[in-house]
Specification:
231 residues, 21% helix, 12 strands, alpha+beta, 12-stranded antiparallel β-sheet
Amino acid sequence: MNDRVERLEREVRLLKFFASCTSVLLLVGALAAAHTNNSDDQVLRARGIVIVDDAGRERILIGAPIPEAKNRLRTNLTRVDSAWAGRYPKGAYMKWYADYRNAVSGMLVLDEHGVDRVVVGDSLPDPNIGRRIGSSAGVLINDAQGFERSGYGLLSVKGSDRVVLGLDTNRGEEGVVLAVIDGGRLGVHVAGRGFLGFFGAAPAADSLGGIGESVAGLLLKQGAAVKRLTP
């Protein structure tokens, strides 16, 4: 009986040894294959990532472009019609909206209701009130209704670049804008309720203030009247 027990123990130890060797060989083979297929074995490659909250709602979308999300307001035309179309003449908004860009290559953060709140990436989505005049890369921040309230980015328009930081009012108007436009305006302007203040430089062809002359310094306007213009 003792001989049989000792023999079984030896066989078990031998099997464990061979199992350990096999595991090591398999691990080495897997690492070698990964290194062969990818020169940097620390890189995680994926077509898209969706992060959900405790309730299972899609909250963060990452991809190039971002993946689809069933609870995203902007890609649900029934919800779009209900949420935003009522601000415009009947039937008009949904025709415009059909051409709006909703995708982005980067990251989108949704709130619990599926409203776009923060966007970071390239080829940013259009605002829900109209199409952009060019392709934009940067950051967007929307309010709880999905209307753009702030953004920073580089906008390319007909081969010319515009670097813009904007803060919008709750009426969809540009409140404070810092802009550097190739061949155009350089400065900051504050606008609201018929008032315009600008400090910087702008050529006569710039639409700023509608005064038909170049600006280099400080411009203050109330309505159509130019209150102060410093050369």
